[in-house]
């Protein structure tokens, strides 16, 4: 059986790094894995999505509308933007964080209210996490993505893979310890 994962966020949040670590772990576990990433208009601040499909045999990385088994959103408006990709009965893990796009920063638009509440009305299986708070408590805001990775690994029941080794292989040595703590905190959420 093939599982379809959709990771969505904003450029600069580390969505692609998490996708690479996740894909590597799945490959190491013996799964056939296909990954596709899409960057928005800007490297930082634009919408970023990654589609990962894994199973015994996967023919395409593409996830059609209503086909994602799990969506992990690094930013809540991005969750709302791509909600149509999640299958009925699918699982949504959303970071309760706001990243303001340029029109909001310049005052031309307003960041929408009630995003989490709207998501909870639409999706039966929603896990809201505050990865930003966890990262701040650890003293390194940049670890939010690894907190989210921990949440996703736990949700997918993939704890048997050596994620610590993969984190060490994909990040500079000077940040290993803090990111391992972030991952473990994410698993506990």
UniProtKB/TrEMBL annotation:
Pyruvate/ketoisovalerate oxidoreductase catalytic domain sequence ranges: 11-187
Gene Ontology molecular-function annotations: oxidoreductase activity, acting on the aldehyde or oxo group of donors
Listed Pfam families: POR
Keyword Amino-acid biosynthesis among record annotations: no
Keywords linked to the UniProt accession: Oxidoreductase, Pyruvate
Keyword Transferase set for record: no
NCBIfam families reported for this sequence: PRK06853.1-5 (NF005325)
Protein name (database record): Indolepyruvate ferredoxin oxidoreductase beta subunit
Lineage: Bacteria, Bacillati, Bacillota, Tissierellia, Tissierellales
């Amino acid at each position: 059986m093939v599982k379809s994962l959709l990771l969505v966020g904003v450029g600069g949040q580390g969505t692609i790094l998490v996708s690479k670590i996740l894909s590597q772990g799945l490959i190491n576990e013996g799964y056939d894995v296909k990954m596709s990433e899409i960057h928005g208009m800007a490297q930082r601040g634009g919408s970023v999505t990654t589609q990962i499909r894994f199973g015994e045999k996967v023919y395409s990385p593409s996830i059609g509308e209503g086909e994602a088994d799990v969506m992990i959103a690094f930013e809540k408006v991005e969750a709302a933007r791509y909600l149509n990709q999640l299958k009925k009965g699918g699982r949504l893990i959303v970071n309760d964080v706001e990243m303001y796009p340029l029109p909001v920063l310049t005052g031309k638009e307003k960041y929408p209210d009630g995003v989490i509440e709207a998501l909870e009305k639409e999706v039966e299986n929603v896990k809201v996490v505050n990865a930003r708070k966890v990262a701040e408590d650890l003293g390194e805001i940049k670890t939010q993505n690894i907190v989210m990775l921990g949440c996703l690994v736990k949700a997918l029941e993939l704890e048997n893979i050596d994620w610590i080794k993969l984190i060490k292989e994909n990040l500079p040595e000077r940040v290993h310890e803090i990111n391992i703590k972030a991952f473990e905190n994410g698993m506990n959420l």
